[in-house]
């Protein structure tokens, strides 16, 4: 089969959901995407097919003739995929879960607590995937997602975790405990608003070492390097509070501005809910939703 003749699955999912609800807004809520993402997926599908699938009016959305003719084919394809997948998993879907979250959250926050999850739900099998970039591209394969980003970028059903503050951290013995910001090795995760420059500016100070900061695509690298005594790494509460409490890391400066990004739990759509996702969501609520980083 020539896959170039097939549109991407996420375009089809957006079309099917929007056609079922006759609403881009409701489709966005169901698929844990923004309304603009649903609209773009549908536009892309229409461009691929060379046909308009919807009649768009100011306060209404209707299927065009082409859309009405195409919808049964799409639904039949999804039904076939669902039956085939169910056969492959041998009915185990209700006991396993695919969780998508970033590498640093998995390593520093989730992994140290998995023994609690296994003790509470010994029957649950957790599979963790950790894309670094473009999480939305991979999210369709996950049952539950923990996404890091600005609240305005999240879907309506995203559940925010407690807000973080960000600050430099290091090994207790780094620079013999006499931290000098002018000579210290500075490390950070790229693409984050809570960075070294923001930390300096929030104190009304200029930051003159931007070209000297060592960057990585995940906090797993910079925080691990700090644990090994390599320098000062910018971090935030969710990832390092346990390491600070255990004494493996220290926070040498008091200044802790609020991080603009936040972690959010994106639950499954109601029709995709399973015993495993319900168990995991209840465990996440107990472990994370009531954390107080300022206590």
UniProtKB/TrEMBL annotation:
Keywords from the UniProt entry: DNA-binding, Transcription, Transcription regulation
One Pfam family, short name: LysR_substrate
PROSITE patterns: HTH_LYSR
GO biological process, one term: DNA-templated transcription
Gene Ontology molecular-function annotations: DNA-binding transcription factor activity; sequence-specific DNA binding
Span of domain HTH lysR-type: 7-64
InterPro entries registered for this protein in UniProt: LysR-type_TF_proteobact-type, LysR_HTH_N, LysR_subst-bd, WH-like_DNA-bd_sf, WH_DNA-bd_sf
Entries under PANTHER family matching the protein: HTH-TYPE TRANSCRIPTIONAL REGULATOR (PTHR30537), HTH-TYPE TRANSCRIPTIONAL REGULATOR TRPI (PTHR30537:SF74)
Family: Belongs to the LysR transcriptional regulatory family.
Name of the protein this chain belongs to: Glycine cleavage system transcriptional activator
Species: Roseovarius albus
Name of the gene: gcvA_4
